[in-house]
Amino acid sequence: MNYDDPLLRQQLAGEYVLGTLRGRARRRFERLLLADPALRDLVEDWEMKLNPLVESMAPVEPPERVWRSIRARIALARTEAPGWWNRLALWRALAATAVLAVVALGIQLARLPASAVESPPTRVAVLTGAQGQPAWLLAVVEKPGVGGSLRFTVLQPQAVNPDQSFELWLIPRGEGAPVSAGLLPPSGSGVQPLPASAWHSLSRAGAVAVSLEPKGGSPTGAPTGPVLFQGALMAF
Amino acid sequence: MVRSRENAAAQPGAEEMPDMPARLLARCALRDEGALERLYRLTAPRLFALALRMLKRRDWAEDVLQDCFFAVWRHAADYRPERGEALAWMAAILRNRALDWLRRVDPETPLEEEAFTEWATDERPGPLDRVLFSAAARAVEDCLTRLQPRQRHAITFAYYQGLTHEEVAQRLGEPLGTVKTWIRRGLEQLRKCLAP
User: Fold this and answer.
1) Domain B122-196, CATH among 1.10.287.70, 3.30.450.20, 1.10.10.10, 3.90.226.10
2) Chain B interface includes A23 (CB < 8 A)
3) Residue B99 DSSP symbol
């Protein structure tokens, strides 16, 4: 089938939302959706136009046990997963890669021209992906009492949809929510100032992570998308 | 819990303003569990009715409703008010889950058909219900009314009951190819009618 045909795309999106697209065709369409933001847009359009039909349903009060189950699931999710940033396994894995990371960083810094290292970094991190592949090299340069800047080098250029951004987070040790340290470009290297809030939480941060967010960064101030890369933040 | 339910029932004016679900969703994105409960009290009965009609079994409808609200809680930050109504966004989550469920269940499983047959006769709301509709709901209702009756029947059957082309054909006693064409043409007309 030619999925570029605009009429066919409209038709499939409509039948997908109506629910008559079933079986293998439905699964194939869902795979297409993952890679095709314009098609997702068509689907969302249909959903928002057809689904107000739910207002015409005569209400049926669900039994109270449904709400109790929802509340229990939320409570369970809260205690079981206090957030990926608090998971013990993450810290063990990070400790194991820490030595490697510092060695790698030493080599990279040695390669930088002298002018780029005029202020030595105080903290460094190598961000790795799920399979342990190094993706970003980060160095924080602190000017006490003034602020900090973030030097980054992409080790492995990343593919990202035009409507998405990579956002860097400082992960505090122990309790506490991640603090945004700004967006990272998918390729190249550069220096950017550390946001004030990130600068203030720098001393408490034990790790950094990159999540995939809507373009321009998380709308909520907390990571909303999947965490793709992470690494320990070490004094250098 | 019981108290907030009474409150919701006692002040329909304040609680059922059209953008109320959107505001509650925004609070859910900030991890306000009280907002989720209010959202549930406000919207679950309509969503449950839709789940029941699609799945035709209470236990399945309860499970899907539960899944739906857990997903709403987790993804509340993804709702974009500029794209449409919060209730429609939630109904999309519910319908997707119900369709997934229908896809998984054994087609041989007997459904509680008898209790639901009366719905088959008229899928449309009466004029009194329409007074309370949002603009978006009135738009889609008006556009449905403009379709040829058989196109409209096929589409509302599929929408409210989660039926496949084959099942719609069976219910309407029409050939499969004919029903597919009605639905395809009906959707095309709907799209044109609903275009901004």
Assistant:
1) 1.10.10.10
2) yes
3) H
Average pLDDT score, chain A = 80
Label residue A201 by pLDDT band (50, 70, 90): confident
- Rounded distance between C-alpha atoms, residue B25 and residue A112, angstroms: 48
CB B25 within 8 A of CB B86: yes
- DSSP lists the bridge partners of residue A137 as A126, A153
- Chain A residue numbers touching B95 (CB-CB < 8 A): 17, 19, 51
Distances in whole angstroms, Cα of residue A37 to Cα of each of A100, B157, B172: 38, 29, 36
Q: Which residue of B has its CA nearest to A21?
A: B164
**ipTM of predicted complex:** 0.83
Q: pTM for this structure?
A: 0.60
A156 has a chain B CB within 8 A of its CB? no
Hey, which bits of chain A come out as E strands? Answer: 123-128, 134-143, 147-154, 164-172, 179-184, 189-193, 205-214, 227-232, 234-235
